[in-house]
Amino acid sequence: MKKSTGKVPGLAVVLVGQRKDSQTYVRNKTKACEEAGMKFVITELPDNCTEIQVCNALSSYNENPSIHGILVQLPLPQHLDEGKVLDLLRLEKDVDGFHPLNMGNLAMRGREPLFIPCTPKGCIELLLRSDVKIMGKKAVVIGRSNIVGLPASLLLQRHHATATLVHAFTKNPEQVTREADIVLTAVGVPNLVRGSWLKPGAVVIDVGTYPAEDSNNEHGYRLMGDVCYEEAVNVASAITPVPGGVGPMTIAMLLSNTLESAKRALN
Length: 267
Ligand code: GUN
Description:
single chain; alpha/beta; Rossmann fold; five-stranded parallel β-sheet; three-stranded parallel β-sheet; globular; binds guanine
């Protein structure tokens, strides 16, 4: 057993607005930090807050030595410039890996980002721990968001897959996905990926998180993935469910990145 340093890793979250899904994600992150014994602090700002208020919160966490990771829950309300806000994050505390320098280093060969975005990192971890070979495989990523699609395609390439990115302007996306050994989808359109979109034996990772109204649910909605699970489960060799598939991995990777950052701060 390793000797304790007595230092506690600290995560700070900035949450702007009242989006129910963002509130749920942040609640889950809080709970995970508490369970792991990590420090967790949050700044909650109203929907109509100014960019200066968000930047002030970030600046103070940037300077706080007890905070090792800072996360701005996305998306931000439309009137706020996401790029400007993320640019302000101190690179060594960017545990989401969304700073353009971290993302740029992820994209370039021979360079290492300080942090890899949590959801794509969690997806790769799922593949590795399920003994799915990535090297030389055809991987298709659906959706090109900065949070999941883009970094996931970069990360799959880093693991030596032939990665193709499918998006809203791709012609015949189902033809492209039918070639894939690994399909990772992160769009937010329920039932977009049908069983007929898949090659038999493909591995399917569903990162879709559409909040569908559901009055029977305590939060008033339930999460739906991008994949028509009932069809896909009969074609795929492995598939992640929604909820309970990738979501917990995102949180695990966030804690792992925060711990890594705290360890670096000791040295
Ligand atoms: N919104 C949806 N997923 C994420 C995530 O992984 N990190 C942040 N900051 N916002 C998100």
